[in-house]
Design goal:
Blueprint lengths: L5 E8 L3 H10 L6 E4 L13 E5 H9 L9 E3 L1 E6 L5 E5 L9 E5 H9 L7 E2 L2 E8 L4 E7 L4 E11 L10 E17 L6 E7 L2 E8 L2 E8 L1 H9 L2 H11 L6 E4 L3 E10 L3 E2 L2 E3 L5 E2 L7 H19 L7 H10 L1 H18 L4 H16 L1 H13 L6
Parallel strand pairs: 1-2, 1-11, 2-8, 5-13, 11-19
Antiparallel strand pairs: 3-7, 4-7, 5-6, 9-10, 10-11, 12-15, 12-16, 12-17, 13-14, 14-15, 17-20, 18-19
Length: 385
């Protein structure tokens, strides 16, 4: 059974944190907004993933009333080094007059904070988008519900925030030939809210403070990832100690999982009546924790563009094109930053090892250079706010 055609100004496909951030940023404005998600509401409640949010993202969420001050663990300092080579740098929040460089919190806690502020009338769960037909005045979205019913909705603008972009002609993909092994590990000594970014020939390794533990992200070739997943706890922790060169010791670890790493970029952010944000627009390597923060900035800037420049029609071609241009610097800068780190540091060539050491040494000895890198990590393209 197909229900009659309903009309709304903006449909957001995907009710994850990026989609919900956009909905909240548009709340109280001139546009009617509907969030559509294929999952049941609260499906994220059991999601154990850890997220690294920059201080700039905290400021964004605070402005929306969606920051849970008790949910995250602050990152006050970051120690950056490379295995098998000299050079290191140290980044301290105190140098920037802020309480933390970033925060680590669970996906479910962030989703709960955002979800609590969204009106029930703004959401439609357990419905999958099966077709989008574009017209000159609106897009028609056909949905299939969990009970098999179909529904049609007319929208001036369709915002895609549903996750990692699929393989199609508009997506550029670079496979890093790495997998991220993730787990929570307990350090022998308290972490004192310090994060570690350790570059190894196999790939970057990060320890992010989360409660009393560290959230581990260990990027390695696929065969090595399989071996790490199969190790017992004792040998897994021994492998971590070796990678950290004795700088950090561990006493226990939780369950391990892994996922493949690739740079996936949608080359065209907008088409008539449609725009892509967050992971639907770009999926980055997790090194330096840039991707998720970039996605939330996508949502914020799209909302700002629609609030200040759109009149009655949220899907005006000129506004969507202007949004895509406005995101170009932040987007390309974040992709170049993370991609460059992976390419330069994920090898064991002696000349590059020496060059990396000099680079880390320069960051440590030249505060303006270190401050630029730190500010980009905190605020994105607004590196000098």
């Amino acid at each position: 059974m197909t229900e009659p055609l309903d009309a709304v100004d903006i449909v957001i496909v995907g009710a994850g944190p990026v989609g919900m951030t956009l909905a909240l940023a548009l709340a109280g404005g001139p546009f009617g907004v509907l969030l559509i998600d294929s999952r049941q509401r609260g499906a994220w409640a059991s999601d154990p993933r850890a997220l690294a949010l920059s201080y700039g993202t905290r400021q964004l969420l605070e402005s929306l009333g969606a920051w849970n001050v008790n949910a995250g663990t602050a990152i006050e300092t970051i120690h950056v080094s490379q295995r098998g080579g000299f050079g290191r740098t140290f980044i301290d929040a105190a140098d920037y007059g802020i309480p933390a460089l970033g925060y680590v919190l669970r996906y479910r806690d962030l989703a709960a904070s955002l979800d609590a502020s969204i009106e029930a009338s703004q959401r439609l769960n357990d419905h999958e988008v099966i077709a989008i037909r574009l017209g000159s005045e609106a897009a028609e979205i056909t949905l299939k519900g969990g009970g098999g019913d179909t529904r049609r909705i007319s929208a001036r603008l369709v915002v895609h925030a549903e996750g990692i972009p699929a393989n199609d002609a508009g997506i550029r993909v670079f496979d890093y030939c790495q997998r991220a092994v993730v787990a929570e590990v307990r350090p022998r000594a308290a972490h004192a809210r310090q994060a570690w970014e350790r570059f190894t020939p196999d790939g970057p390794l990060a320890l992010l403070p989360l409660g009393q533990d560290y959230a581990l992200v260990f990027c390695v070739p696929p065969a090595q990832a399989s071996r790490l997943l199969q190790l017992d706890e004792e040998h897994f922790l021994a492998a971590l100690r070796t990678s950290f060169g004795g700088r950090v010791d561990f006493v226990s670890s939780g369950p391990r999982a892994s996922f493949p790493l690739a740079l996936r970029v949608r080359q065209q952010l907008s088409t008539p009546r449609q725009v892509w944000i967050g992971n639907a627009a770009q999926s980055l390597h997790p090194v330096s924790g840039q991707g998720f923060n970039l996605g939330l900035r996508d949502a914020w800037e799209l909302a700002e563009m629609l609030r200040t420049r759109a009149s009655r029609d949220a899907g005006q071609r000129a506004i969507l094109a202007a949004y895509a241009r406005r995101r170009r610097i932040d987007r390309s800068g974040s992709m170049a930053f993370t991609d460059g780190l992976v390419r330069v540091f994920s090898n064991d060539l002696a000349p590059l090892r020496a060059a990396r050491g000099l680079s880390l040494l320069a960051l440590d000895l030249l505060p303006p250079l270190r401050h630029f890198v730190a500010r980009r990590m905190i605020w994105g393209a607004r590196a000098w706010p």
